[in-house]
Amino acid sequence: MLYRRSLGFKWFMVINSVIMLLLVAAILIPFLHLLSVSLSNSSAVVGGKVGIWPKGFNLDAYVRVFQHPSIIVGFKNSIIQTVLGTAIGLFMLTICAYPLSKRMLKGRKLLILFIMFTMFFSGGLIPTYMLVKSLGLLDSIWAIVLPFSITPYYLLLMMTYFGGIPEEIEESAMLDGLGPFRTLVKIVLPLSKPILAAITLFLIVYYWNNWFNSMIYLNNTDKHPVMMIVRNIIAGSDLAGNAGSVGDTGSSISSASLKAAAIMSTTLPIMLVFPFTQKYFAKGVMLGSVKG
């Protein structure tokens, strides 16, 4: 019996490893191909000779992308939106999730029911636009940040994690003279680094990649984030349609190389954030989803 279990476990590990390798390859190979296209000669790209390794290494496509008059402003706008949106989102989620994690809160089940209802049903794009317009938020960064500062799923995730912290710890802190707010700041939040790191990563990725809300609520192109500019490049309405020489070198750049370089220029910065939160990411998601 032990031999059969051991053999079955080995087969499970083999199959599991093969599936994981296929998934990694499915994600990594397209990424490496896109990176290679952005770093290859246009003749090799147009001829379809580029695989996962660059052909004729050069940075001309990246030079052209960063010569775009709006790309630097777009990066600045994206950083402002991401930092401000993540900070406000974490604050709003924390002050909402902490009281909802307390079982003695009156009307708690009804409030959670309302929150869960909004996960499946929403007013839609037009009512949301009318609300943002009536509040005078159109064409401002607040139209991007405030209406989307609380995501019901993230709120429930954080609430469940807070609910898993032993009540005895908070009771001990209150006996030492700490009020609810100081208990949250000095006791609960330091114990909640995993879920805070996970939610932070979710919010950063959301605000950095979000271009649709900017297209709807921002009329001034000087306020557009970098993803909006990249979207125009990919759509062929900006920069890629003018592919040609770079500076005075006279070297031709294909539209595919420009699009790949634009995508990689905006993808790599957000990928650099993950190693700093990876330590807590898996732990925060798993504990927040099963405790309580």
Fold topology:
Blueprint: H1 2-39, H2 42-46, H3 60-66, H4 71-100, H5 108-120, H6 125-134, H7 142-145, H8 152-163, H9 167-175, H10 180-191, H11 193-209, H12 212-217, H13 226-234, H14 255-271, H15 274-290
Question: Your description of this structure?
Answer:
It is built from 15 helices and no strands. The protein has helices spanning 2-39, 42-46, 60-66, 71-100, 108-120, 125-134, 142-145, 152-163, 167-175, 180-191, 193-209, 212-217, 226-234, 255-271, 274-290. The protein is globular and about 70 Å long.
Give the overall average pLDDT.
82
Number of helices: 15
Q: How much of the sequence is in beta strands?
A: under 5%
Radius of gyration over C-alpha positions, nearest whole angstrom: 24 Å
Strand and helix order = HHHHHHHHHHHHHHH
Give the N-terminus to C-terminus distance in angstroms: 37 Å
Helix fraction bin: over 70%
Derived from helix and strand composition plus strand pairing, the structural class reads: mainly alpha
Globular, elongated, flat, extended or rod-shaped: what is the shape? globular
